[in-house]
Amino acid sequence: MNEENIWKGSPSQWINFGFYLLCIPLTLVFGLGLLLAIWKYFDTHLHKFEITDQRILEHKGIFSKTTDEIELYRVKDLRHEQPFFLRLVGLSNIVLDTTDRSNPVLQIKGLAQGHLLKEQLRVAVDQRRDIKGVKEVDFK
Q1: Which of 46, 68, 91, 114 meets the CB 3.0–4.6 Å disulfide criterion with 86?
Q2: Beta strands in the chain (DSSP E)
Q3: Nearest 5°: CA angle at 114, between 96 and 70?
């Protein structure tokens, strides 16, 4: 069965603003700050997410690559967060609580229009659960 892409992207570099500020004095004193800033830039730039109507793929790594996959029907809860600094620059985070053993909490940080992606995800998760016949049962 073919998968349809819902969204592809990577976090904004704004999530590293504090780290980059810390690198300035390290560059002046030790010269190490520039190397750390470059590393952090590529680490964020190469951290990619791909969301389809069936699963979420997370690709990360600079030299060695890792791909993690979460089936959409495993998503239990979605949360949209707008930390103060990210809100100032129009960005937000999406946090997914899942039943996936290797990645129970997935954070997608530094997103423009994160509230829209969260709604698209919510609809896709509900559709996928219906297709797979997955029902959630809570025991108290």
Answers
A1: 91
A2: 5-9, 48-52, 55-60, 66-71, 75-81, 91-98, 105-112
A3: 30
pTM higher than 0.85: yes
Whether 53 and 129 have beta carbons less than 8 Å apart is answered as no
Selection from 112, 117, 66 nearest residue 96 by Cα: 117
**pLDDT tens readout for residues 84-108:** 999 999 999 999 999 999 999 999 9
Task: Read off φ and ψ for residue 130, nearest 5 degrees.
Answer: -65, -45
Distance CA 5, CA 3 (A): 7
**Residue in this structure with the two tokens 């049962």, named with its chain if needed:** 137
Average pLDDT of 38-45? 97
What DSSP designation does 3 have?
Answer: -
DSSP 8-class letter at 15 = G
Q: Is 134 helix (H, G, I), strand (E, B) or coil?
A: coil
